[in-house]
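re: ur question from yesterday

yeah so i grabbed the chain u mentioned. its 291 aa long if i counted rite. heres the sequnce exactly as i have it in my notes:
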Amino acid sequence: MSTEDQKPDAGLYEEIGPWTEVKHEIIRDYARAYSTILRAQQRPGFYHIYIDAFAGAGRYVSKKSGLLVPGSTELALQTNPPFREYHFIDIDDVKVAQLEQIAGDRSDVIIHHGDCNRVLVEQVLPLVRYDQYRRGLCILDPYGLHLNWVTVASVAAMRTVDIFINFPTMDINRNALVRNPSGIAPLQAERMTAFWGDESWRQRFYEDSPQLPLLGERPEVKSVTNEAVAEAYRQRLRTVAGFGYVPPPIPMRNSSNAILYYLFFASHKVVARDIVEQIFDKYRAGGRTRG
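ran it thru and got these structure tokens back, copy pasting raw so excuse formatting
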């Protein structure tokens, strides 16, 4: 019985909308192209690994069908030709147990239990050294503002890893980039600063209210669109983190056409950028990024 034919255990798997299924398809398409190219390289040959830093349970419940569907981790394990190694990271005990069940006795799968911001940098990235002809594809798909900029910068510094990043627009708007900055909870501001890398977001995304202030005050208000915030992050990936190529991200929308998040890609290779742009264009053209 295939994953899609299975009825899910209640409460065990998260429910996902069509936009998330599309995201998984995009990552699957690129992983297949990436592995094909790396497997074919000779003199020198490359040892390539797949990394999912927020791996989840590996499977999800489709909101559309109500059935189990494979997540990016399970799809990665089906990649043909396969990667040399797979590294899955998650902080949740239950999800780690599910990943272990999916992996079974495969010796090429290593599952890490812990915070990806520590595990990825300390344990996994050292396995993808440039001078050892190792390369990697890394998926950074946080549940919200749980990805630190230091982690992204560490990946960029390796110069051996391509990444997909889920830019959590909804969480950012709900908790960090609220209309009036005085309403931001300190903890949410700290999360945003860790995600962004510094506090420049405060000055960049707010301005004095154009309305006449009361009692001589100059209240600030949010002054940017989702598109502008995403573009600013894209520029940070290029100019601050140092990735050579960061194509415009693809927005993922719900059935009301609201942007839930952006899917970013970053690499040091122009051929990687070209492949991803073709994949992004295919899904944009087909209208598949909307729920």
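noticed a couple things. The chain has one domain: 3-285. also The longest strand covers residues 259-266.
anyway ttyl
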